[in-house]
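Practice record 12: protein with GLP.
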Amino acid sequence: MHIEIAKDYHALSVFTGKYIADSIRNQPNLVLGLPTGRTPIGVYHYLVKQVRQGSLSFKQVKTFNLDEYLGLSPEHPSSFASFMREHLFRHIDIDPENTHIPAGIITDAGLVCRQYEAKIAKAGGIDIQLLGLGQNGHIGFNEPGEAFESLTHVTELTLETRQINSSGFGSAEKVPRYAITMGLKTIMQARRILLMAVGEQKAEAVVQAIEGPVTAEVPASVLQLHPNCLWVLDVAAARLLSGQTLQRHRAAMI
Ligand code: GLP
């Protein structure tokens, strides 16, 4: 595990954006796992800028998103498919055929989940999985209690998560109760993982995930077992980490 601490959101976004852009330049057919949420918006903005300047191309890149709300079509304004189009895909030269997001409107959930896993496998597996972090330690939509062995599956969202994610819906009750998400095992199979966390409200989840026991109660704690995981935190999200942790993981300020 490696930790980088950014002085602010801009520095975090530029560092992470550059990390992804350089990885694509080194390996133009990179397979990327992507999150939604407020945290990655600055990274997507950075990547769009690089493409517009002509210094980066997504022509051969394949992407797999972590999750989608069950019951929302890709056209729904609060779907993660809309989010991705809005913040990244429509601004870059990626082939839409190479972008994958779990379908929100499904009849046979088991089949859809197996097919998503098969598509990831067919692409050769995920090279870099970018992650945000839920305030309760969730990654993707793997809520506390999720099995470490889980693959892509349908999950029930906690009330807390629905409240936090309610802005595009009006109220927590209007946020879909269920979502389809890559499982913790799907995430752990990525060759490299980069988790970003920003703000004071993430500090507790960060310290539990990094310093606490590896437990299903804090899904992100499973990342302690990953051989190539980088945490990129802003100062506020890192504020509860001990000096010993920062030293052990050679935390650097960016
Ligand atoms: C959402 C997503 C996660 C995301 C997290 C944090 O519910 N399913 O993939 O990382 O919550 O979101 P934010 O970046 O807005 O804090």
